[in-house]
Amino acid sequence: MNLPFKALADPTRRKIIMLLKERDLTAGEIAEHFNMTKPSISHHLSILKQADLVSDERKGQNIYYSLNTTVFQELINWFFEIIDYNEGVKNNEDK
Amino acid sequence: MNLPFKALADPTRRKIIMLLKERDLTAGEIAEHFNMTKPSISHHLSILKQADLVSDERKGQNIYYSLNTTVFQELINWFFEIIDYNEGVKNNEDK
DNA sequence: TAGATATTTAGAAAATTGTCTAAATATCTA
DNA sequence: TAGATATTTAGACAATTTTCTAAATATCTA
């Protein structure tokens, strides 16, 4: 649960997530949306990947990035626990 | 939305939130749960407060901290948008 | 195979963050 | 009012993060 929270702390990375919500994109297409070098975007993508928030797949010269919704589900569960929407949803404490 | 995400990026602060989920606590009580000085905990509390995730109220010598669920609700909405659990929860565009 | 395109890796500099000690502020009580 | 307790503020320092440029890797195509 630590890596996803760290990954979401950066506004650039949250914007990347919003872009990927619409459709899968190549690293280059993602970079076009930012005023930042491609290596920097590549680094952000790497952090999102380590956190398992996105996954990548090479197709020829391009690498396509896409959202990985499972970890987002886990994060939602974490928040539900906080506001006590839980107690029955699952059964896991702490974490 | 930036301050809450930043605030949640630190494990100490997430643990504080988990403690406050159970009941309101004084700064000193919170500090007892950590292997860290009181000024450090005070600093973490300040960041949580700036993000509006917690609120504080002085009662005599003590300052009690408590969870502020509204921002957590907003965060949950943000996550719902990501996994498309939305479309009707807020604005119902086409579809 | 050479050159073009897409992307990542490496390494460094600057900015931000987390933690500490020392000192300040606020409140209570004798 | 003086001393004790609870907490924060200030300032410094180390660790982490963000960003850059330069170079490396991977793939395609002529």
UniProtKB/TrEMBL annotation, chains A, B:
InterPro entries: ArsR-like_HTH, HTH_ArsR_DNA-bd_dom, HTH_MetalResp_TranReg, SdpR-like_repress, WH-like_DNA-bd_sf, WH_DNA-bd_sf. Residues 1-87 form the HTH arsR-type domain. The keyword Transcription regulation applies. GO terms for molecular function: DNA binding; DNA-binding transcription factor activity. Keywords: DNA-binding, Transcription, Transcription regulation. The keyword Transcription applies. NCBIfam families: HTH_metalloreg (NF033788), repress_SdpR (NF033789). This is FIG004131: Transcriptional regulator, ArsR family. It comes from Thermobrachium celere DSM 8682. The lineage of its organism: Bacteria, Bacillati, Bacillota, Clostridia, Eubacteriales.
